[in-house]
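Dear Dr. V.,

Thank you for agreeing to look over these. As mentioned in my earlier message, I'm a first-year student in the group and I'm still getting used to reading structure tokens, so any feedback on how I've presented them would be very welcome. I ran two proteins. I've put each sequence directly above its structure. The first is here:
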Amino acid sequence: MADSIEDAVSRALSDAPERNFRETVDLAINLRDIDLADPNNRVDESIVLPSGTGQDTRIVVFAEGETALRAEDVADEVLDSDDLEDLGDDDDAAKDLADETNFFIAEANMMQNIGRYLGTVLGPRGKMPTPLQPDDDVVETVNRMKNTVQVRSGERRTFHTRVGAEDMNADQIADNIDVILRRLFTDLEKGPQNIDSVYVKTTMGPSVEVPA
């Protein structure tokens, strides 16, 4: 399957017109024979891409003490309990932060207050933080999440996710797609039978069907 995926990616990259910006490569997945009105059937997965996303991923960490100091070396922003309370009092700032950030990570003992102050902002956006347990390495967690994409269908039969950038090799992007499809095959009730079609394209380029 990987070879045929790579062929589709190569076509998508070669067919893309020249642009004056670095395009992302996106995957469109169309589902069938599945009731997405039932939340249990919806796709909602964080998937680590073996070749990375090809894009900058903005990560904010809620932490204090030693964990906060370590996080400052790798995260885009580190916020403490006082910052959290301030965001709770400033809805616009909280929404801006949520919209600008790909992933949040938080020390487990801060999760309750995050739910209290930011739950109504982060929850609907699917951006509640990943809890960091006392034994977890914050540096390792942040670096892993930089290569992570959120694959989420909601109630839609067609949904999209980023799988790379146009200057990545076709085999790297194909590896990313392969990992996503294998995860979907495992998660969906009927596996591959729940996937109607899959397409890959650059931001402005034509879609190319991917064998699934």
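The second protein is here, in the same arrangement:
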Amino acid sequence: MAAVVALGLGVPALVSGSTPASGSAATAPAAPATDSADAGFARDMATHHQQAIDMSFIVRDRTQDEAVRGFAFDIINTQANQRGMLMGFLDQWGLSQSTTAKPMAWMGHTYEAHDGSLMPGMATNTELDKLRSLSGRDAEVFFLQLMIKHHRAGAEMAQAYVDAGTNAPEKRLAQGMVDAQHAEIQLMTDMLAERGAQPAP
């Protein structure tokens, strides 16, 4: 698990990891437009990450299992860190953290928001209420099932940005998300198997 977490926690260097331009006459690239893939991914993934953080806080208080609590703590720290970086990009570009555009419009997605689920993989309000009502093994299993769906969709969004984005530091951050979340999906699948369960269809 530590190696997986390191993938997420090691990304702060990505923001400042751009190569300095050679020559004193070099100028900074223009900031992305508010309807660009760069801005859209930053906003949407920040929203997606916030729900993962919220779900992790819920399960942390619904079980005493150290493995699940430790994994939830890792998600809270890693995704809060990444969310801050995404918001930082928008701030650097002088762009608003919110928009009237539909979520994932930058990648041509047509997902219809419902019951609090704004994007693919996001849990509904009904599912979050159910998670809050469970405890022990039941809470662990449901959390892991919800988080696998959340990670699958998050990794797909991050990959779409890797393929379409133009901002190099943000693309490196997105690639780190893809790699880490695929590894965590396998970890969660194994944790479910240990509890006699499997990912939800």
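From my reading of the second output: Residues 11 and 173 are 6 Å apart (CA to CA). Residues 1-25 have pLDDT under 50 and may be disordered. Does that match how you would interpret it?

Kind regards,
E.
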